[in-house]
Amino acid sequence: MKFSGKVVLITGGTRGIGKSIALEFAKEGATLALNYVNDDERAEETLKEIKEIGGYGILIKGDVSNYTFAGKMVEQVIKTLGKVDILVNNAAISKIGLFMDMEECDYNSVMDINFKSVYNTSHSVIKHMITNKRGNIINISSMWGNLGASCEVLYSSSKGAINSFTKSLAKELAPSNIRVNAVAPGVINTEMNAWLTKEEREELVNEIPLGRLGNGEEVAKVVAFLASEDSSYVTGQIINVDGGLQ
To answer: Is 107 left (phi over 0), alpha (psi -120 to 50) or beta?
Structure first.
C-alpha cells in the first residue's frame, strides 16, 4: 500500500481523469479529499466506488477558481484529515471554437478554472507543506500546452501557463522538500473529448504512434508514480502521456 497514511487532495476528482486518479490512489491506501463543483449524484457514486475497493475519502463541493473557497477547502481537509501530503490540480474545462468567436467571459472562465484554480489551491496548501518540510504537488496539464491546438486557443494557453508555473514553483519549493511536477495527457477517452466526431477520432488515432486513444488509468498511474518515493529525485518536469504524439 504505497500511499498508506497519506492524504491526497484532488480537484475535479469525481469524474474523468480525476476519478481515475482517485481510484488509483485509493487502491494504494491513500485517504482522499475529492473536490467537485456540480453533479452530486456522480460524486457520491465515485465515493461509493472508492469505498467498495476498501478506500476512504470525503467530498468537498465548491469552485476552486474562487481563492477564498480554495483556502477554506484546504483548511477543511487539514481539520478533518489532519494534513495534505499530495495535491493534484486536475479541475479543468475547455471551450471549443474559433478564437475570433470567443468572448471575454470565455477567456475568464477557462483561465480561472484551468489556471487560477492551480494558483489558488497551491498557494493555500504550500504554507502547510512548508511547515511540515514535505509535500507533493502534481498539476494536470495537456499536450496542447506544449503543441497548441487550433480551435482550443484558450485551453492550450491555460495549460501552457500551468507548465511554466510547474517549472518555476518546483525550483522555489525544492529547498523545502516539496516536489512539483505536471502530467500532460494526450487524447484520452473521457467526456471532455466526447465532442469529437467519429471521423475526427479516427484522424487523431492515425496520428498517434501507438494507434489508439489513451485511458484515464494510464494517466493515473503516472500521477501515482510522481506522487511516490519512486520519483524522489524528479521535480519541475512535464511528463507526457500521449502515445508518442509529441
So the answer is: alpha
Distance from C-alpha of 222 to C-alpha of 239, rounded to nearest angstrom: 8
The answer to whether 70 and 20 have CB atoms below 8 angstroms apart is no
What are the angstrom distances between the C-alpha of 214 and each of 7, 88, 163?
27, 20, 21
What's the rounded Cα separation, in Å, for the pair 112 and 100? Answer: 20
Alpha helices in 117-174 (DSSP H): 117-132, 144-147, 153-173
Residue 159 CB neighbours (<10 A): 30
Q: How far apart are CA 123 and CA 132, in angstroms?
A: 15
**What is the distance in angstroms between the CA of the first residue and the CA of the last residue of the chain?**
33
Q: What is the mean pLDDT of each run of 10 residues along the chain (246 residues)?
A: 96 96 98 97 97 97 98 98 98 95 97 98 97 97 94 96 98 98 92 72 88 95 98 98 91
- CA-nearest of 123, 129, 128 to 174 is 129
pTM: 0.95
Say if residues 24 and 223 touch (Cβ distance below 8 Å). Answer: yes
180, 198 in Cβ contact below 8 A? no
Catalytic residue check, 67: no
Burial of 211 (0-12, 13-18, 19+ CB in 10 A): exposed
Helix (H, G, I), strand (E, B) or coil at 236: coil
d(CA 242, CA 246): 7
Of 36, 67, 119, 155, which residue is the catalytic one?
A: 155
Q: Give me the residues paired with residue 122 across strands.
A: none
- CA 128, CA 100: separation in Å to the nearest integer? 42
Specify the pLDDT at position 204: 83
